[in-house]
Design goal:
This protein is of the alpha+beta class. It contains four helices and six strands, in the order H-E-E-E-H-H-E-E-E-H.
Amino acid sequence: MSEAKQMLFARNMICICIEKKESGDYIGLLWHQYSDDPIEFNGVSDMLMLMDDLYDEWDFPQRSLEKREFNKAREHEEMNCDPDSLVIDKVQATSGVKNVQNKRGSLGTFFVQVKFRQNATWQGTVIHAETNSKSDFNSAMGLVDIIDKTMNNN
């Protein structure tokens, strides 16, 4: 139980609240510590893309592979920032930190901490809030598999 509580305070923690299941796909809300408003997702692929966009916005955890760009005229944001400061620190300072531990989905709730984004996928830890069971995953597909198995067992 203590490991679970420690993970709940990760700076890039996202709470996945699953509200309903339609045609075998999950629909729900994403909550994170830097906003009072949830982000709606309509399906697992949408959820993964929205989470990846948040990690890119926060630049945490950093990608090990950069996205390919075909428009070289566009300047990179990284070139204009202080190399010793993290974007997520600026986000935290600007918006403060909100508590998302009390958020719950009507079908299930998962707290996700992505520790690394290596090999073009994610590695991290997920906690199912209703059972307080903790699992590690080595890919975004592994995360989806854990969520799906947990939801089907309940």
